[in-house]
Design goal:
Elements: H1 2-5, E1 9-14, H2 23-40, E2 46-54, E3 57-63, H3 98-108, E4 112-115, E5 125-131
Parallel strand pairs: 1-2
Antiparallel strand pairs: 2-3, 3-5, 4-5
Helix pairs in contact: 2-3
């Protein structure tokens, strides 16, 4: 409902092999990333989700068109209770635990999450890589 109220588009592309995960935990991790993207995206923007198989892993990229993460915040963005410098105008400040939860849940699956480099003002780009068993 939040993305519809902000008139956002969500584009999902790609395919990936099945991965054995705790569906609730992975849903919570992806939900936190998506919630942040919705919160920071401009009205009428697009959020891009790309799935791709990698050697022994599945990659999930999530990119938005918001202001991105301030350079000063990048090193601490996954710390519990850390809230970044750039906040949406008029929005209630978050608790600062969402990205820490993402990191913990992804790590619990043997994976990793990282904030990818981006040009200022070009949105945030998070990447999750989860191992998968090859047939």
């Amino acid at each position: 409902m939040q993305w519809q109220a902000r008139q956002l588009s969500i584009e999902v592309e790609g395919e990936a092999p099945p991965v054995a995960v705790d569906a609730d935990k992975l849903s919570a991790a992806l939900g936190n990333l998506l919630s942040n993207s919705i919160r920071f995206s401009p009205v009428g923007g697009t959020i891009f989700v790309t799935l791709s198989p990698q050697r022994g892993a599945v990659r999930i990229d999530l990119q938005d068109q918001g202001p991105g993460v301030a350079a000063a915040d990048r090193a601490r963005i996954f710390e519990p209770f850390f809230r970044g410098e750039v906040q949406p105008e008029g929005a209630v400040r978050g608790t600062g635990i969402g990205l820490a939860i993402v990191r913990e849940y992804v790590a619990a699956h043997g994976g990793r999450v990282e904030l990818m480099p981006h040009a200022p003002g070009k949105g945030a780009h998070f990447r999750i890589e989860l191992p998968h068993v090859q047939d």
